[in-house]
Amino acid sequence: MAEALEPTRDLRATLPDLVDALLDKGVYLDLDLIITVADIPLIGVNLRATVAGIETMLEHGMMRRWDAQTREWVRRSVTRQLPLADDEDVVARMAGGHRLQEPAPLWRPGTVYLTTRRLLVWRAEPRELLWQADLADVVGVSLRTEPSVGGEDRTRVVIETPAGETVLSAAAPERLRDLLVEHGARPTTARPARGEPAPLLREHTWYLEQLAGRSTWRGGTAVLDADGVLTWQGALDGRPAVRLRPEDIASVDVERDRSPVGRQVVVVRARADDGAAAAVRLATADATRLAQAVADVAGRRALEPTGGSR
């Protein structure tokens, strides 16, 4: 028997507390409302309602029929295009493609599907299974940044199976990698593409982006390539938001400031065409290491923090 929802009351609760309670525990409304005009009651409303996140509803035995019907509708919709086994469900779906290596490297666009049994790339028109692997055969997964045909860096998903290495493109490569790890794949160290030198540094980094008069920290990947070019790109960005050549860098400092990963921020100042120095602020778990690496390729000295936070 499902456990009943228990009411709570806290006069100090804020709006975020209300949202958390709504999604996690649920909110029960018991409302009697009478609408009057000139002290004459005209309309009466008697409301009994429970509002909660879907997972909470299902946990307490509510809306299970709706959930089953919705899942079945989604399954029928997907199987009209993608052939699935009777006991196979789709976990994730995103635009992507498969790189065919022989006789020459060739990208074949399609849709990447992660199911409860396999990882596959499917093309709807004309209908063709471009590539697939059972999840039990996916022994390793990593991300690799390599230049596209247009010269821009793209993050690829590298899948390791007993048959060898396969390279996929995906709209959300980090999400696909994380889902595969959750399903048992081993996260491996990314290797450079064939013929491409390994980068000097690559790590998850936060970038302070200026938007309409305000600033916000965004998570992404900072790469210092073999030529000393520093780039930063968000997971869903089409191109790097930061791209600095060694000769563009005027100074590299480590300043005391708040960030999502601590109280030290790497400040890279770049020479602009008008002679001004535009500041790029990056935050990572080891700010000194990132600052020193950038300073080394630019022929500058990384300055340690000396003042207070701004």
**In DSSP terms, counting alpha (H) and pi (I) runs of 4 or more, how many helices?**
5
Number of strands: 18
Shape: flat
CA gyration radius, whole angstroms: 26 Å
Would you mind describing this structure in some detail?
The chain is α+β, with helices and mostly antiparallel strands and 310 residues long. Helix content is 17%, strand content 46%. The strands form 3 sheets. It has an 8-stranded mixed beta sheet, with helices on one face. The chain has an 8-stranded mixed beta sheet with strand order 14-13-12-11-17-16-15-18. Strand 3 and strand 4 (106-115) form a beta hairpin. The longest helix is centred in the N-terminal third of the chain and has 16 residues, at 64-79. It is flat, with a radius of gyration of 26 Å.
Task: Summarize the helices and strands and which ones pair or pack.
Elements lengths: L14 H10 L2 E11 L2 E12 L2 H6 L4 H16 L10 E11 L5 E10 L2 E6 L4 E7 L5 E8 L5 E9 L2 E7 L2 H10 L3 E2 L13 E11 L2 E11 L5 E5 L7 E3 L4 E11 L2 E10 L5 E7 L3 H12 L3 E2 L7
Parallel strand pairs: 7-10, 15-18
Antiparallel strand pairs: 1-2, 3-4, 3-9, 4-5, 5-6, 7-8, 8-9, 11-12, 11-17, 12-13, 13-14, 15-16, 16-17
